[in-house]
C-alpha cells in the first residue's frame, strides 16, 4: 500500500447533471395524461355513466385553466432543461 498524501487533485471530475431527453419526454407525456384525466373527469365524470366527478365543476374555467397553464410552463421548462443539458454536453 502506498502512503502518498491525499490532495484534492485526486478527486474525480464532477459530471454535469440535468434533465435528459427521456426525462423531458416523460414529463410531457405525464402532463398530457394529467390534462386528459382532468378533461375526462370534467366531461364524462370519474365513472362514465354516473355524474360523479373528482374535480369540483365550479372550478371550471378559471382554476382549471390556471392548472393547464402551470402544466404547460412545467413542460416548457422540461424542454428548456433538456436542450440546455444537450448544449452543455456538446461544449
Describe the structure.
The chain is an all-alpha fold and 91 residues long. The protein is 57% helix and 0% strand. It is built from two helices and no strands. It has helices at 21-43, 62-90. Helix 1 (21-43) packs antiparallel against helix 2 (62-90). The longest helix is centred in the last third of the chain and has 29 residues, at 62-90. The chain is elongated. It starts with 20 loop residues before the first helix and ends with a helix.
Summarize the structure.
This protein is mainly α.
- Computed Rg: 23 Å
Cα-to-Cα separation, first versus last residue: 39 Å
What shape does the CA trace take? elongated
Oligomer: single chain
Percent of residues in beta strands? under 5%
> Percent helix among the residues?
55-70%
Largest sheet: none
- DSSP helical segment count: 2
Structural class: mainly alpha
- Say how many strands there are: 0
Would you list the SSEs in sequence order as H and E? Answer: HH
> What is the arithmetic mean of pLDDT?
84
Which runs of at least 5 residues are low in confidence (pLDDT < 50)? none
Entry keywords:
mainly alpha, 2 helices, elongated
Please describe the topology of this protein.
Elements: H1 21-43, H2 62-90
Amino acid at each position: 500500500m502506498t502512503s502518498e498524501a491525499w490532495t484534492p487533485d485526486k478527486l474525480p471530475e464532477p459530471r454535469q447533471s440535468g434533465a435528459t431527453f427521456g426525462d423531458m419526454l416523460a414529463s410531457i407525456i405525464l402532463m398530457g395524461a394529467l390534462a386528459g384525466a382532468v378533461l375526462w373527469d370534467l366531461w364524462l365524470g370519474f365513472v362514465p355513466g354516473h355524474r360523479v366527478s373528482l374535480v369540483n365543476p365550479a372550478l371550471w374555467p378559471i382554476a382549471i385553466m390556471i392548472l393547464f397553464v402551470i402544466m404547460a410552463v412545467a413542460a416548457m421548462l422540461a424542454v428548456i432543461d433538456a436542450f440546455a443539458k444537450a448544449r452543455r454536453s456538446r461544449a
